[in-house]
């Protein structure tokens, strides 16, 4: 059965690339888009201004197994970005670059909170994780040119804060 996971961790170009690279060969489909905001027809230009309050995000559809499942997706999300910088990721600044987990069920909420507590304890002692953990709302796919952007544009901008921390 396919499940959905939704995360925001800064500029969505590099976020999608990082998940695609790490879970290569698994049953995973990703798209980038906008969620967590108020406007009913967000587009890149509007979201860039911050006025819609949407986050640049990734939506992952996957069939859980021992290699890909919600706990390891949440852990990977924490490994590939800095969850301690409020409303910014690397040089990208604005609420659209906030760190967030948008859960789709009570079970996902529980796991997200558990993993967050473990990562806080293990990797960020004394430095609060500011990641928002909130219920998933409406999702808007980003424009086609943003999908798999770094495959289409291998020399395109990749946020330098997107790398594996452990
Ligand atoms: N700093 C990058 C961010 C792109 S990302 C899709 C730029 O301004 O192009 O927000």
Automatic annotation (TrEMBL):
Reactions that this protein is recorded to catalyse: L-methionyl-[protein] + [thioredoxin]-disulfide + H2O = L-methionyl-(S)-S-oxide-[protein] + [thioredoxin]-dithiol; [thioredoxin]-disulfide + L-methionine + H2O = L-methionine (S)-S-oxide + [thioredoxin]-dithiol
GO MF term set: peptide-methionine (S)-S-oxide reductase activity
Domain of life of the source: Eukaryota
Record domain Peptide methionine sulphoxide reductase MsrA: where: 4-159
EC numbers for this chain: 1.8.4.11
GO biological process: cellular response to oxidative stress
Keyword list, A-Z: Oxidoreductase
InterPro entries: Met_Sox_Rdtase_MsrA_dom (IPR002569), Met_Sox_Rdtase_MsrA_sf (IPR036509)
Assigned protein family: Belongs to the MsrA Met sulfoxide reductase family.
Name of this protein: peptide-methionine (S)-S-oxide reductase
Organism encoding this protein: Mortierella alpina
């Amino acid at each position: 059965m396919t499940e959905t996971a939704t995360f925001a961790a800064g500029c969505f170009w590099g976020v999608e690339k990082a998940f695609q690279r790490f879970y290569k060969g698994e049953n995973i489909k990703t798209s980038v888009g906008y969620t967590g905001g108020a406007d009913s027809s967000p587009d890149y230009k509007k979201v860039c201004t911050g006025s819609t309050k949407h986050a640049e995000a990734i939506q992952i559809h996957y069939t859980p197994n021992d290699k890909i499942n919600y706990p390891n997706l949440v852990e990977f999300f924490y490994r590939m970005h800095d969850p301690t910088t409020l409303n910014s990721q690397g040089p990208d600044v604005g609420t659209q670059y906030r760190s967030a987990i948008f859960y789709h069920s009570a079970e996902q909420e529980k796991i997200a909170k558990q993993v967050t507590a473990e990562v806080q304890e293990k990797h960020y002692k004394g430095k609060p994780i500011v990641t928002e953990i909130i219920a998933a709302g409406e999702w808007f796919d980003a424009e086609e040119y943003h999908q798999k952007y770094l495959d289409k544009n291998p020399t395109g901008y990749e946020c330098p804060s997107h790398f594996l921390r452990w």
